[in-house]
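Structure ticket #2291
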Amino acid sequence: MNRKQTLALAIRSQFMQPRGFAGWLVGWEMALRPSNRKRNVWAVGLLGVEPSDRVLEIGFGPGIAIRELSRRATRGFVCGVDHSAVMVRQATRRNADAIRAGRVALLCSAAEHLQAFAEPFDKVLAVNNLGMWREPDMRLKELHRLLRPGGRIAIVSQPRGSGATAETTLAAGREIAARLTAAGFTRIRSDTLALTPPVVCVIGEVP
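Resolution: structure written out below.
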């Protein structure tokens, strides 16, 4: 492996699990990039969060979507889990008021190590991290059990690999839809956001 490949691998690993000072910079870059903000706000809007909803976000990164979720769930509760301690700190600063008010809680945890929650959730969101989960099909079944009947999940993907195109996004959407169906979700639908490459959000419901 040459130096260029080694550097690319190191940068990719920081986006997957930010850590240290480099991870802090990655988090700020994600928070400041307009396309990231647009993608997160768009996805939250598609979930249809109600004021009294309990919402769970997996892999919240710098906390952009957490902030948008808490602005909608004004009488509810928003919980976020992320496996990066650096991202937990950044998102905590970005959502400090809602955390102090008890409307938001942020936990350092991987998707495969979700704690037991006292009450089911109404909505679940995951933006660009399904591919990082161990045994994603099993994780989706667990999230299905964490949602109340009528609850809704949104899985968002914007393929970031070299040469990703609109067809790459469509293929990702089809794969996510199949995984949600296998996990027991129904009324599957997909929406796309015209970025480069496009973003797909696949939504499923618990019967």
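Closing remark: The CA atoms of residues 181 and 188 lie 7 Å apart.
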